[in-house]
Amino acid sequence: MIVARRKPLEEIKIQLKGYKKVLNVGCGTCVAVCLAGGEKEVAVLNAELDMARKMENQPVEIDAITLERQCDREYLAELDAIAKNYEAILSMACGVGVQFLAERFPEIPVFPAVDTSGLAVNQDVGWYEERCRSCESCVLGQTGGICPVTMCAKGLYNGPCGGTNNGSCEIHIDQPCAWYMIYERLKKQGRLDCILEIIPAQNWKNQVPRTLVQPGYKKIEVKKAS
Ligand code: SF4
Ligand code: SF4
C-alpha cells in the first residue's frame, strides 16, 4: 500500500495562512490504514487547526469529509456540489490524491497535509517498510523476490558493492545487505545461476510522470491516441 506521514502542524498552518474557510478531505484507503489521513486523522487535524488559529486570533472554519478514495474520479464526484463553498482544500491523501483533487477543482488551491513516503508493507502496528519504488522494470524474478532498488542503499542491480560486511550493509550494522539476502534466498532455491545474469542499466523511466495502463485497458489508450 501507499504510506504517508502527516506533515507537522506548523507546515500545514503556513499553507493555510489567510484562508478562512477550508475543507479538509481525508482518504479512506491506504492513508487510513497507515493512520495518516483517514477519517480519524482528519478530525484530529481539524481540532488542532481550529484551536491553533483561535489562539492566534485568526479563526478558520474547517469542515471535514473523508472519501472512499481520492485517486478515483467516481469518489471525487462527491465533492462537486460542495467544493465551491471553500476558499481552499486540504487533502490528507497521498500525492496522487492531492493532484487529482487539484486537477478536478483548478480554481481552488489544494494543499497536501501529508508527506507520501512510498509503497510499503505493514510489519507491525504503525511500522511500514518500503518495498517497491515503482521502477517499472521489475527484476524480482531474478533476485529471489528481494527488491535491489529499494533494499540496497545504492540501488545496485548486479551484486553487492565492496561495503557488504558479514551480511550487513555498510550504512549500518543493523541494516542487512540486500545482495547478501538475495544470495542467500537464491541459494536456498537452488537458483544461484540467476545472480550471474547481468541486469542491464535502466533508463530511469521513473524520473518522469508515467501513465500505467493495465493490459485489459489497452483499447482505451489506443482510442484516446487516435
Ligand atoms: S524491482 Fe523493485 S522497485 Fe522495481 S518494480 Fe520490482 S519491486 Fe518495485
Ligand atoms: S553493502 Fe549491500 S545493501 Fe549496502 S550498498 Fe552495498 S550492496 Fe547495497
Structure in words:
This protein has helices at residues 9-15, 30-33, 39-55, 73-76, 95-104, 148-151, 178-188, 218-225; strands at 2-6, 21-27, 61-67, 88-91, 110-112, 114-124, 127-132, 168-169, 172-176. It is an alpha/beta fold and 226 residues long. A four-stranded parallel beta sheet has the order 3-2-4-5, sandwiched between helices. Strands 1-6-7 form a three-stranded antiparallel beta sheet. The mean pLDDT is 90. The two termini are 34 Å apart. It is elongated and about 65 Å long. It folds into two domains: 2-119, Rossmann fold; 137-204, no CATH class. It is built from eight helices and nine strands. Helices cover 29% and strands 22% of the residues. The site of one iron/sulfur cluster (SF4) has 10 residues, from helix 6.
Tell me which ligands are bound: iron/sulfur cluster
Give the termini distance in whole angstroms: 34 Å
Q: In this structure, how is the largest beta sheet organized?
A: 4 strands, parallel
CATH class of the largest domain: Alpha Beta
How much of the sequence lies in strands comes to 15-25%
Taking all Cα atoms into account, the compactness measure Rg is 22 Å
- Order of helices and strands, N to C? EHEHHEHEHEEEHEEHH
What is the count of DSSP helices, taking H or I runs of 4+ residues? 8
Average pLDDT reading = 90
Q: Examine the secondary-structure arrangement and name the CATH architecture of the largest domain.
A: 3-Layer(aba) Sandwich
The percent of residues in helical segments reads 25-40%
Number of structural domains: 2
